[in-house]
Amino acid sequence: MPERVAPAVVPKRRRRARPPPLAPSCALFLDIDGTLLDIAATPDRVRVDGRVTGLLPALARRLDGALALITGRSIADADRLFPDIRLPIAGQHGIERRDAGGAIHRLPAVPGIEPLRRELQQLAADHEGLLLEDKGETLALHYRQAPRLAPHLHRTVKAKVALARDARAWRTQTGKGLIEVRPDGRDKGTAIVEYMTEPPFCGRTPVFVGDDRTDELGFAAVEAAGGWAVKVGPGPTHASYRLRDVASVLQWLGGAANAPASQRGPED
User: Fold this and answer.
1) pLDDT tens across 47-96, in order?
2) Could you give the count of Cα atoms lying within 13 Å of 67 in the half-sphere of its Cβ?
3) Do 196 and 94 fall into the same domain?
């Protein structure tokens, strides 16, 4: 099954080196790894910067609660990173989603994940440097510590998915140093669209900040809704704006969190 990825095109409107300041009327959606936190060799080794744990509650107050994390991690894993902050979160690329009221919405389980899980576990066991991240309904095979295996792994995983039971129900998704298997029908874009139908997000200008290929569908969703898509780091992208790295993201977000309550960002 081919990957569903937004086309990396340059939007018609003028590009900017940096996004404009956030206005209190925005709805802010943030990826975690590579956006709020620097990527580590393995997902469990990321370091949570104290600036982030201070920024998120301040931003939520600034935006009247219209702040959500949009991540490939599970909700439980994201909550472990930020144990003292309970935000709306779309986990596993939108397969599970916690709304602003705390209710959890989950995509019904897709049959056939157990054989795929066993095959990817065996694949990881057969090659030094591979790590299988089992998130429940999605499976991510990390090869950041064995990059030479990337072509082989991409071919092998896609072939296994094509031969799986209910193959049409599954998607493969590539990212930075990983290839992921997830159920079809949900992605970061659909999660953002769902949030935008609910308070406190509805009626606001959506802004999504992300760094990876998995974020492109989210970029497309906010652009289609008249919002701002912000790419972190280099590489082709659908996003209209760009920030250089995690430090630049935190600096930009800090400007919004510390702005006077009466200050509004420019109309865009």
Assistant:
1) 998 899 999 999 999 999 999 999 999 999 999 999 999 999 999 999 99
2) 22
3) yes
Whether 111 has a pLDDT exceeding 80, the answer reads: no
Q: For residue 180, what are the β-bridge partners?
A: 140, 173
What is the maximal distance between C-alpha atoms in the chain?
58
How far is residue 223's CA from residue 225's CA, in Å, rounded to a whole number? 5
| Residue 60 one-letter amino acid | A
User: Per-residue confidence at 166, pLDDT binned at 50, 70, 90?
Assistant: confident
Which residues constitute the domain of residue 165? 113-183
Domain of 154, CATH number, reads 3.30.70.1020
Per-residue pLDDT at 9 exceeds 90: no
For residues 31 and 43, the model is more confident at 31
pTM: 0.86
Residue 95 in tokens: 């397969």
Q: Please list the active-site residues.
A: 31
> Quick one: angle between helices 216-224 and 188-195, nearest 10?
40
- Angle of the 150-162 helix axis to the 113-126 helix axis, nearest 10: 160
CATH number of the domain where residue 85 is located:
3.40.50.1000
**In whole numbers, what is the pLDDT of the chain averaged over residues?**
88
* 3-state DSSP assignment of residue 101: coil
d(CA 22, CA 206): 10
Can you tell me the distance from the alpha carbon of 253 to that of 256, in angstroms, rounded to the nearest whole number? 5
Q: Which residues partner with 142 through β-bridges?
A: 131, 178
